[in-house]
Design brief:
Layout lengths: L40 H20 L9 H10 L3 H8 L9 H13 L3 H26 L2 H13 L1 H7 L5 H20 L3 H15 L6 H15 L5 H32 L7 H26 L3 H27 L15 H13 L4 H21 L13 H11 L5 E5 L4 H6 L4 E3 L7 E4 L23 E5 L8 H5 L1 E7 L2 E6 L5
Parallel strand pairs: 1-4
Antiparallel strand pairs: 1-3, 2-3, 4-6, 5-6
Helix pairs in contact: 1-5, 1-6, 5-6, 5-7, 5-8, 5-14, 6-14, 6-15, 8-9, 8-10, 8-14, 9-10, 9-11, 10-11, 10-13, 12-13, 12-14
Length: 505
């Protein structure tokens, strides 16, 4: 008798899905709790398009409503003349210690003009590009879900939104830092020469954009050195990557040495060294550290530890850069400010995207949605869309008042001194007063091209002139006798204009 075969009952086939091996090995399934499936290509594309569209709406809405504040007016003045004028302003350190942003803005303004919204459009475009690069980097390292979450984290970061809506170089620096991060991630995935070329080019661009950009180049070299491990050629590759940025920074420092020293003599930043570093730590460093620790906890493999160590090596010079420059600056001056460390944001939101991708889908979606809503609300709360500057200055109203009330030849004492630029942008032109400090200006009626100067005589002997004291802050360097004779002529938000009575005979 032939042996009877016992048939196994048929059931649904069991599928063995091999998890996608990421470059860093962080999101390997199964997780310590239920594994989260990846997004489909179509869902990822739709999600990224929605994130980029929301970024465009948040960046472009009421873009021309807030008036230009001091730094933005400086950007306008840099590009308002010839290329020689732009160069002269750059070597005075008036483009954040760089040249690249002013050059790009001049090319753009030659085509589109110099209106408030027009000057700020490049920043919004760079913001969108930064989000796209961060998403692409997360997709390269992890998966589509991490890419969408990293883009959402970049959209939710309030510092990026504020930087994008300004005609300043900080958002360009963030974009270049994102490119450096993308090149580092790509080099770990596939060690190609073009990745090193992108690293060197983006690092050089960062150094040419901002005085703090050289630390992006140092961070790129440090991260590359960590990724190289025990490879004997790692140090040589790191040196080649950092060399263009370091060479530019050295040449630029020699060129700007004397003029930068004069600028720093009157330069001041609100807040103390320690309070400003506390803000950098809370808003930029701590989120990055938390995301990295979470990723290490989810996957403590050697490859994951190497990746996080490279990220930390990249972040350390950027975070310490303001302190290093402050140590080299004049005594009593510090250059620690949140926006000077914004290059940490692409690193933090990229790591946050990977960390969020390990959470259950609904929890991650709820967290990012809440973060985006809070960020937009914070932007409204910080007057990003208001008709006054974030410091509360109604510069349009003040400039209109001076233009209609003051006469050519009157004296304007403007504090702080460089605030003559936003006033000039809105039509209240002034020129330096000969023989006086930089806060003393002469009101002109011809677009600032020439001015009647006060000579070397004292102002008190020129009774036909009215003195206007324009105060942008409570900090003052005006003579006490001038303040005693000043009476309020108009208040424009937190900006006040006072008239000074002639001295008693």
């Amino acid at each position: 008798m032939p042996r009877q075969c016992r048939m196994r009952p048929m059931g649904p086939p069991r599928l063995h899905v091999r998890p996608r091996r990421s470059a860093f090995g962080i999101l390997r399934s199964p997780f310590r709790f239920a594994a989260v499936p990846d997004l489909s290509p179509r869902a990822c594309r739709l999600g990224l398009c929605a994130a980029l569209l929301l970024a465009a709406l948040a960046g472009l809405w009421r873009l021309g409503t807030p008036p230009l504040w001091l730094d933005e007016a400086s950007s306008w003045y840099n590009v308002s003349g010839s290329w020689l004028h732009l160069w002269d302003r750059a070597v005075q350190g008036e483009d954040s210690g760089g040249l690249l942003y002013s050059a790009l803005l001049k090319l753009w303004s030659a085509l589109a003009g110099t209106g408030e919204a027009t000057l700020r459009v490049p920043g919004v475009v760079l913001w969108i590009a930064t989000i796209a690069v961060i998403a692409r980097t997360a997709r390269l390292v992890w998966n589509r879900r991490a890419a969408l979450l990293a883009a959402s984290a970049a959209l939710a970061h309030p510092s990026l939104l504020a930087a994008a809506r300004q005609a300043r170089s900080y958002i360009l620096l963030c974009f270049l830092a994102a490119l450096v991060l993308h090149a580092l991630a790509g080099y770990m995935t596939e060690r190609r020469r073009h990745r090193l070329c992108l690293l060197a080019a983006a690092s050089l661009g960062a150094a040419a954009t901002h005085v703090m950009g050289v630390f992006v180049g140092l961070g790129a070299a440090s991260g590359l050195l960590v990724l190289g491990g025990r490879d004997r050629a790692a140090a040589r590759r790191a040196a080649l990557v950092a060399a263009p940025a370091l060479a530019f920074a050295a040449a630029w420092a020699v060129l700007l040495r004397d003029r930068a020293a004069r600028n720093l003599a009157s330069f001041w930043i609100p807040g103390t060294f320690f309070s400003n570093y506390l803000a950098i730590g809370v808003l930029l460093v701590v989120p990055l550290a938390v995301a990295c620790l979470w990723l290490l906890w989810r996957d403590p493999s050697p490859r994951s530890r190497t990746a996080v160590a490279a990220l930390a090596a990249f972040a350390a010079p950027v975070a310490l850069g303001p302190a290093i420059v402050s140590a080299l600056a004049s005594k009593g001056t510090h250059l620690v400010q949140l926006r000077y460390a914004l290059s940490l944001v692409p690193l933090g939101v990229w790591a946050a995207g990977g960390a969020l991708a390990t959470l259950p889908r609904r929890l991650a979606a709820a967290a990012t949605t809440l973060a985006i809503a809070v960020s937009l609300a914070c932007g409204v709360g910080k007057q990003l869309y208001a008709p006054v500057t974030r410091a509360g200055h109604d510069i349009r109203g003040a400039a209109s008042f001076l233009s209609s009330t003051a006469r050519p030849g009157d004296i304007a004492v403007i504090e702080a001194a460089n605030n003559w630029m936003p006033l000039a942008y809105y039509g209240a032109w002034t020129a330096p007063l000969e023989g006086r400090d930089s806060i003393w200006r002469v009101i002109t009626g011809n677009g600032g091209q020439s001015a009647q100067t006060g000579g070397t005589g004292t102002l008190e002997t020129k009774g036909e002139r009215t003195i206007w004291l324009v105060r942008f802050s409570r900090r003052t360097a005006a003579p006490p006798d001038l303040l005693e004779r000043a009476t309020l002529a108009g208040r424009f938000g937190t900006l006040s204009i006072l008239t000074v009575a002639p001295p008693k005979s």
